């Protein structure tokens, strides 16, 4: 079993620790940005439309007046397909992509922010920070308690001390590492406080999203998958619409001037179905 000195008694220790602190600081920054994204209007809009369309589809049943749904069921709700033959390939997310307006630029921005935090867990960051803080604390204790006349210790640090222009006296070793130790201790404590703050945000989001006791990483993963599903469906609908528009524009038209311009504008707009047709589509998709 290696001792703390065998593992860490080299000048590179400070550089390695700083790199680890920097990585964990970046991770907490990404998670906090993801937490902000989880309250974005685009997600709230999607959840509201899922509830609204669900109540419409289920009208006449006990589920027609739902006031919410479990957040964990969001992907399943979006993936729900119609039971009739002519709607077997139509999902709720496809209906939303076709009939509901979404800010696609904001949508892609939220997805990007969530994806950058998708592989990060608070438990891992917290455990790593505690271990780092423990290592720094053990190093400081041994620096304070180790006999300065220990030949092997002074020999190990002699190149480092001489490189920094320090004479090897009783205080040199501790003085050499004192700035790093104090900085590491302060930074480690600060990052742990940030993690605790994110725990509080996690609790708040659980209530906000009806996510019960879901972990923050689970909420991020489910939201990323759901929004990616919506984005994909919107892009597929846009391709279909573009192809349809291209075909319609190849048909010769005996129009001119303002009349031709008006028809061209109308060709780019989605066909508006009557209420009864839309209702039938929703019922078939139930």
Topology:
Elements: H1 4-8, H2 13-37, H3 41-57, H4 74-79, H5 92-99, H6 104-115, H7 122-145, H8 151-163, H9 172-208, H10 216-249, H11 257-267, H12 275-285
Give a short summary of the structure.
By secondary structure, the protein is mainly α.
Task: Describe what this molecule looks like in 3D.
This protein has 286 residues and is mainly alpha-helical. It is built from twelve helices and no strands. The chain has one domain (15-245, 270-285): Formin, FH2 domain (Methane Monooxygenase Hydroxylase, Chain G, domain 1). Helix content is 71%, strand content 0%. Residues 1-256 form the FH2 domain.
- Percent strand equals under 5%
Rounded average pLDDT = 76
Domain count: 1
Backbone structural class: mainly alpha
CA(first)-CA(last) distance: 63 Å
- Give me the CATH fold name: Methane Monooxygenase Hydroxylase, Chain G, domain 1
The largest sheet is:
none
Q: Which superfamily, in CATH terms, is the homologous superfamily?
A: Formin, FH2 domain
How does CATH name the architecture?
A: Up-down Bundle
Shape: elongated
Alpha-carbon Rg, integer:
30 Å
SSE string, helix = H, strand = E?
HHHHHHHHHHHH
Organism: Strongylus vulgaris
InterPro entries: FH2_Formin (IPR015425), FH2_Formin_sf (IPR042201)
Domain FH2: 1-256
Pfam family, one: FH2
Tag the structure with descriptive keywords.
single chain; 286 residues; mainly alpha; Methane Monooxygenase Hydroxylase, Chain G, domain 1; 12 helices; 0% strand
């Amino acid at each position: 079993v290696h001792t703390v000195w065998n593992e860490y008694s080299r000048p590179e220790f400070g550089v390695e620790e700083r790199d680890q602190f920097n990585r964990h600081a970046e991770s907490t920054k990404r998670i906090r940005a993801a937490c902000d994204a989880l309250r974005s209007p685009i997600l709230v809009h999607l959840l509201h439309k899922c509830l609204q369309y669900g109540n419409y589809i289920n009208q006449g049943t006990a589920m027609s007046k739902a006031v919410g749904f479990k957040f964990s069921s969001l992907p399943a709700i979006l993936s729900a397909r119609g039971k009739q033959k002519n709607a077997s390939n139509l999902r709720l997310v496809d209906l939303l992509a076709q009939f509901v307006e979404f800010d696609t630029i904001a949508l892609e921005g939220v997805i990007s922010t969530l994806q950058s935090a998708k592989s990060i867990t608070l438990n891992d960051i917290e455990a790593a920070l505690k271990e780092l803080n423990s290592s720094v604390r053990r190093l400081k204790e041994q620096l304070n308690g180790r006999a300065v006349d220990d030949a092997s210790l002074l020999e190990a640090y002699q190149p480092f001390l001489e490189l920094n222009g320090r004479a090897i006296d009783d205080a040199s070793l501790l003085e050499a590492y004192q700035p790093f130790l104090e900085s590491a201790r302060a930074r480690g404590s600060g990052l742990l406080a940030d993690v605790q703050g994110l725990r509080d945000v996690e609790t708040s989001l659980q209530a906000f999203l009806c996510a019960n006791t879901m972990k923050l990483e689970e909420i991020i993963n489910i939201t990323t998958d759901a929004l990616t599903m919506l984005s994909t469906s919107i892009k597929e609908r846009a391709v279909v619409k573009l192809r349809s528009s291209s075909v319609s524009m190849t048909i010769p038209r005996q129009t001119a001037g303002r009349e031709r311009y008006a028809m061209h504008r109308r060709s780019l707009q989605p066909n508006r179905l009557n209420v009864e047709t839309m209702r039938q589509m929703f019922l078939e998709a139930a």
